[in-house]
Amino acid sequence: MSKIYEALQKAQEEREGAALAAALEPEPPQRRRWWRRRRKPKGKNQVAALQIDFDLAPDIEEAYQRLGTHLLLPTQDTTVLRDLMVAASQHGEGTTTTAALFASTLAKRKKLDVLLIEANLRTPALEQVFPIQRNGGFAELVDGRQSIDQVVQATPQPQLFVITSGHYETSPSNVLESPRLAEVLEQLHERFQFVVFDSAPVNVYTDALILGPRLDGAVFVVEADRTRVDDAQRAKRQLERAGTKMLGALLNRRKNYLPGFLEGLV
Q: Does the pLDDT of residue 34 top 50, yes or no?
């Protein structure tokens, strides 16, 4: 019995010694992750910096040109479009990118004088895309504080012009509901052959619901693997209920899961 007790006592001492050694041993340095967590925006409406590569791959440029061809062709129930709004359901789904690339393609391939208007007064981003300044823009133009010549800015691309959001004095909704907007649109149509409006997200603000019915139509942007079906359907219903003419939807950032030679056979 004494031998068993001595063995148990020895095992207990060994365990206590191992625990003491582990406590005194310095902690090994933590391994650095090979990935980094994405930082969430600090503000509610703050979005990540936007960079657009206008040197498009041939297939992407062809897709935008085909979109422009379909939209600019007259149909039985309408005349040729003079303007359109680009909208999405939520922030970050590619509205500004789509509007800028579509306007750029129209100016480059269709040889039209195109005006891109930053009607997203909530989270403006065009000054990150083009070498322009937001000294005065769409808000000042509609309010009558500045003229078209004062707010229109040229871009490095020929025949492509931009009007930034500007600085509103009351609220974005009041700017878009202004009775002067109809007069401003007519003046812009006299100066430019086509006008593209970048709008705020439909499910977040009412801005697109106010602006859409006052234009010839709207294109809805859906981001692949991100936009929820119910969000897109809700935004579409709201736009149509407000009186916006929906011209179609554009699938943004689509990924190809098949090699090119296999996709051509499908």
A: no
Reported as a single tens digit per residue, the pLDDT across 145-191 is 999 999 999 999 999 999 999 999 889 999 999 999 999 999 999 99
CB of 156 closer than 8 Å to CB of 210: no
Of 200, 182, 198, give the one whose Cα is nearest residue 114. Answer: 198
Q: Given the structure tokens 């030679």, which residue do they identify?
A: 261
Task: Give 186-190 contacts, CB < 8 A, sequence gap 24+.
Answer: 187/148, 188/83, 188/115, 188/117, 188/148, 189/82, 189/83
What gap in Å lies between CA 161 and CA 138, rounded to an integer?
A: 13
pTM for the structure as a whole: 0.75
**3 state DSSP class of 197:** strand
The sign of the dihedral angle between the CA atoms of 109, 244, 211, 200 is negative
And the tokens for 261? 């030679």
> Residue 69 contacts by C-beta under 8 Å, 6 or more apart in sequence?
none
Q: Identity (one letter) of the amino acid at 236?
A: K
Closest CA to 213 of 251, 249, 185: 185
pLDDT (tens digit per residue) in 82-113:
999 999 999 999 899 899 989 998 998 888 99
